[in-house]
Structures are given as structure tokens and as C-alpha cells.
Specification:
The chain has 472 residues and is mainly beta. It contains 3 helices and 42 strands. The protein has 2 domains: 100 residues, Sandwich (Immunoglobulin-like), CATH 2.60.40; 346 residues, Single-stranded right-handed beta-helix, Pectin lyase-like (Pectate Lyase C-like), CATH 2.160.20.
Length: 472
């Protein structure tokens, strides 16, 4: 490859990058960065499961893995249910075709990273039980039409149609395993980012699907960012009840809650919760619920057309600071707040108020920059959810080889190319960082630092592709 060709491609790549619309900072921020940060499966191999059985094997392994999710996963075992989730004959008038559900028990030191916009766990929930150092990014989740039985509460049915395997949460994080000493019961260093969670919007499904992302017991150093929660009743909670007294530490930022008709956006008990730059939109029920002795720092959020966006229970002494938040078209507001658009509202009743205090200041714990609340709706609608991390590369010098593809997701660069090709990776300053031989037609490369790079593919000494790569 001629140097002039490479540096021309480098200049063009940097020019295109600088001319792109401003991409938000998608790096890890918040409580998940503390005490060593959250690295997931970076120390292990990168794998791409193709079957449900392979997915289960990697997720539940004791080894560290970065697991690339490139498609929809189900159990593959089909059946029919009615609208309550009960199994029915295919000939029933209200029969819905579906697959049996499953719960995967995520072990420590894992990254589950969706590639593109096709990563989908359909009726497959995740449980994190007394585990640590876990990253879940760019994956869609639903439990819609999961076969279930109700014995006091709904439980997911296993593929035998009789055994139950757990609650119909999309993700459940807890730390109450009786099989290990109590002092070791903790789940910590967890990052859930750019995911989508939903079920069904009808009110009669209020109890059927449980939570979208629930956090219980001793959970520390967690960040939930750039996620979308919609079409559901009881969205999220932190703390399963008034006896769940752990000081959970969770950052929620740039999440989009919309069409939640019930409650828990989220419901917070005890702990320290930094809730900033979130958008709550068209939620007809109870919103951010400040319950027993919680501390929340609510900053730069936008609450649009919601019934009760923020409230508490005065007798339980939950407390929060409201900083630079915007309310618009909301029905019930905390004392001292008003609707930006002048919409008519009433103040919370005394027993739904909360104390205006917070026992921590996020900026004293970690670095972050809150966006202005007025920019939150457009920003979050554009950038939250799946398919926003993938950077499909564009070729600048040579047309893409018929058998070649270069793309990135998170910190993983994936190259599909002829088996005799070579990949060379350059930093934006033109310095070669590494060279790799493509074997078996594919290579996955982990890149430790975020930034702009140029990936060059060569075959028989000739350049066959040159592409910019943005690593988030």
C-alpha cells in the first residue's frame, strides 16, 4: 500500500468524523466507574454464539467472555398461549403463537454486547445473583407472550410446560443467595447501556410481566444509561421492600421512559441514586417514587405529559434534590415546581411529598457533565436504545471487497474478509497500532481506548478496504 493513499484516507476519515453531528459521550459514567470501574469480559475471549445453547453456555460460564449478540435469540421451543400467558391448544380462538421462556444466570466478568440493531432476547431474561463486573449493551428485551403460570404471582414456565424457572423480569439483579456466606452476598460493578425493554401496554397485564429491570438487596456501583423503557406497567425498582435496607448506589442517566401506564420509574428505597438527564414522557401513572429513606439527586431531567412525575410517601422520609429539571404538561407536581408550558396542575398532597435534601453530591464522587434539561428530549429520543453504538464504516480509497466487512460495536472491532487478508489498525495520528492476520474469514479485535481509528485491509500486498472506525 502506498503511504500517500493511506494518509489521504486518514485525512478523509478525520474530516468525515469532524463533520458528523455531535455524538454524545457514550463512555461509562457514574457509580459503575468507581473502585476500579466495570470492565466486563475484557480479560477473556470474544465469542459469537449462534444457538440458544451456546448463548447459555457462555453467559453461565465461570470464564470471562465478551459475548457478541448478532441476532434474535429465543428458546426455539414453540407453543401457544392466551392473553394471560396460559398455554392453550393451537385451535383456541385466542391462541397466540410463541416460544417458551428462559432465565439465564449471568456469571461475573461478562460483556453481552449487541452488534448493529438485531440483538434481541425474546422471552429470555437475565438474572445477576451475587455476581460482579458485568456489562450489558445494545440489546432489546421483552417477555411478551411468555408462557407463565400463576401461583400467587406469575412465574415463567420451563419448556416442559410444568416447571417454573423464575419471575418474568427482563433483567433481575439481586444478592440474596443462601448458598453463600451472608458477608459475600453482593452484586456490584454493573453497567446496562443502550438497551430497550418493553412488554404490552394494556392495563390488564399489570401483574403479568413484573419488572423490566429490578434491583434488590446489596447492589453497588451500577449505572443504567441510554436505555429505553416503554409499554409496560411496573417498570423498575431499587429495593424489594421496606426491610431491604442496603445502601444501593445507582446512576440513571439519559434514559427514556415512555408509555408506562403504571408506576416505578423507578421506585427507590434506601440507597443513593443519581438520576440525571432522563426523559419521562406520556406516562399515565405514578413516576419517580421516592420511598423509605432513599436519597436521590434529580438533575437536568425533562418530565413531559406525565400524571405524577415525582412523588414520595411523607411517612417514609425519602428525600431528593431537584436541580434544573423541567416539567411540561404534567398533572401533579412537587411544591415549588410549575409546568413550563403553563399547563394546569395541582400540587402533591402532603402525604405524597418528600424532603428536599440529599446525603451525597455526585460531582464529588465521579466526573460527569449534565446536559441542559431543554436539550434532553431531542437528545434522548435520537440516541437512546439499540442500534446507536454501531458504526458501519465507510470506505474512502478502495471499494469494499465483495467478501469484506468492517464494523465496530462498543470496544470491539469486527472484520470479515478473505482468509488470506491482513488487517492493519492505525491511530488517528497515523501511527500503526497493530497488525492481524485474518484467519477463518473473521477476526474480532478488542480496543481498550475510545477514539477514532483507521482500519486497513490488505490482500496480496494490495489495499482492498480502508475505513474509519469510531470506538465508543
Amino acid at each position: 500500500m502506498k503511504k500517500t493513499h493511506f494518509f489521504l484516507s486518514l485525512i478523509l476519515a478525520v474530516t468525515v468524523i469532524s463533520g458528523m453531528a455531535q455524538t454524545p459521550d457514550f463512555s461509562q459514567i457514574g457509580f459503575a466507574t468507581l473502585n476500579g470501574g466495570t470492565t466486563g469480559g475484557a480479560a477473556g475471549q470474544t465469542v459469537t454464539p449462534t444457538t440458544f445453547e451456546e448463548l447459555k453456555q457462555y453467559v453461565e460460564s465461570d470464564l470471562p467472555y465478551t459475548i457478541l449478540i448478532t441476532k434474535e435469540f429465543t428458546t426455539g421451543v414453540t407453543t401457544f398461549v392466551d392473553e394471560t400467558g396460559s398455554i392453550v391448544d393451537a385451535s383456541a380462538s385466542d391462541a397466540r403463537p410463541t416460544t417458551f421462556g428462559a432465565i439465564l444466570k449471568v456469571k461475573s466478568n461478562k460483556t453481552l454486547l449487541g452488534v448493529g440493531d438485531q440483538a434481541f432476547f425474546n422471552r429470555i431474561g437475565l438474572v445477576i445473583q451475587c455476581q460482579s463486573n458485568i456489562i450489558i449493551r445494545n440489546i432489546k428485551f421483552t417477555m411478551t407472550d411468555v408462557p407463565a403460570t400463576r401461583d400467587g404471582e406469575y412465574k415463567i414456565l420451563d419448556t416442559d410446560g410444568v416447571t417454573t424457572v423464575g419471575d418474568p423480569d427482563c433483567i433481575g439483579i439481586q444478592a440474596d443467595a443462601e448458598s453463600i456466606p451472608e458477608a459475600q452476598r453482593i452484586s456490584q460493578h454493573i453497567w446496562v447501556d443502550h438497551c430497550e425493554f418493553y412488554n404490552e401496554a394494556e392495563a390488564y397485564h399489570k401483574d403479568r410481566y413484573d419488572g423490566l429491570l429490578d434491583t434488590k438487596n446489596n447492589v453497588q456501583n451500577m449505572t443504567i444509561s441510554w436505555c429505553v423503557f416503554h409499554d409496560h406497567s411496573k417498570a423498575m425498582l431499587s429495593g424489594k421492600g421496606n426491610s431491604d435496607e442496603y445502601n444501593r448506589t445507582v446512576t440513571y442517566h439519559h434514559n427514556w421512559f415512555h408509555n408506562i401506564y403504571g408506576s416505578r420509574l423507578p421506585l427507590l428505597r434506601f440507597g443513593q441514586h443519581h438520576y440525571y438527564n432522563n426523559l419521562m414522557e406520556n406516562c399515565a401513572g405514578d413516576g419517580l417514587n421516592l420511598r423509605i429513606e432513599t436519597n436521590a439527586y434529580i438533575e437536568g431531567c425533562y418530565f413531559l405529559n406525565c400524571k405524577t412525575p415525582v412523588f414520595g410517601k411523607a411517612s417514609e422520609k425519602g428525600q431528593a434534590l431537584l436541580i434544573d429539571d423541567i416539567f411540561s404538561g404534567c398533572s401533579k407536581l412537587p411544591a415549588g415546581c410549575t409546568n413550563l408550558d403553563g399547563a394546569k396542575f395541582e400540587y402533591l398532597k402532603a402525604d405524597n411529598e418528600f424532603e428536599r435534601a440529599c446525603n451525597f453530591t455526585p460531582s464529588e464522587l465521579y466526573d460527569y457533565t449534565a446536559d441542559a434539561a431543554e436539550n434532553v428530549p431531542d437528545m434522548v429520543r435520537q440516541w437512546a436504545g439499540v442500534g446507536k453504538l454501531v458504526t458501519e464504516t465507510t470506505d474512502y480509497v478502495a471499494p469494499r471487497h465483495a467478501d469484506s466487512r468492517i464494523f465496530s460495536a462498543g470496544n470491539v472491532l469486527t472484520v470479515e474478509a478473505p482468509a488470506d487478508a491482513q488487517l492493519r489498525l492505525f491511530a488517528a495520528n497515523g501511527k500503526q497500532m497493530a497488525a492481524y492476520r485474518v484467519e477463518g474469514g473473521r477476526i474480532d479485535v478488542q480496543i481498550a481506548r475510545t477514539g477514532c481509528y483507521v482500519a486497513v485491509l490488505e490482500q496480496n500486498g494490495k489495499q482492498i478496504a480502508c475505513s474509519k472506525v469510531l470506538i465508543h
